Amino acid sequence: MEKRVLLTGILAIALVFGVMVIGCKKEKTNNSGEENDGVFILNNIPSNCNGNYAVLRAKNDDVILIGCQSINLSKGTGTAVRISNGSVRLPMWVKVGENYEKYSGNHTVDVWIGITDSEALKISSDQENFDNVFFDDRRLESVTFSNGGATRATQ
User: Is 0.90 topped by the overall pTM?
Assistant: First the structure.
């Protein structure tokens, strides 16, 4: 009888441990609890920018990044992301050769964010800038991306 109770106890402990290991996954979130892998989140945007669109450009000696919903280099176009409730979530893209791919890297870069009233982007011939008219912009120095994502508030 004692062996049976001991065996049941060992099985119960093994079951609890197994459920914890299999059932617990590491959440990839920022300090506000939002998932941000491959996404740049900008908070605290002035309310007069709500309903407009944002785009991001960042670079250092190693990497060129663009933050927008989509990019079509063959047409020289892209899609900006709508600002809502003083916040915007910009999917990140990295330049690889003559193309852009989803970004998942770890770099520290200086960031420029442009705000425009148009969702449609015109990508310049150098494939690193935008030909749109921006009515507001923000510059953020030394933004560190981890797993392609970062979060900042406007200053």
Answer: no
Per the CB < 8 A criterion, the answer to whether 37 and 147 are in contact is: yes
Which token pair is 110?
């200086």
Provide block-wise average pLDDT over 10 residues at a time, the chain (155 residues).
58 48 39 67 95 95 94 90 97 92 96 95 82 90 95 86
> Measured between alpha carbons, how far is 124 from 131 in angstroms, rounded to an integer?
6
CB neighbour class for 123 (10 Å; exposed up to 12, middle 13-18, buried from 19)? buried
Domain boundaries, the chain: 39-153
Beta strands at 81-82 and 120-122: parallel, antiparallel or unpaired: unpaired
Assigned token pair, 92? 């990140």
Identity of the residue numbered 66:
I
Say if CB 150 and CB 105 are below 8 A apart: no
Pick the closest to residue 138 from 40, 63, 69, 61 (CA basis).
Answer: 40
Distance separating alpha carbons of residues 138 and 98, to the nearest angstrom? 27
Q: What is the DSSP pairing of strand 150-153 with strand 39-43?
A: parallel
Structural tokens at position 148:
């392609």
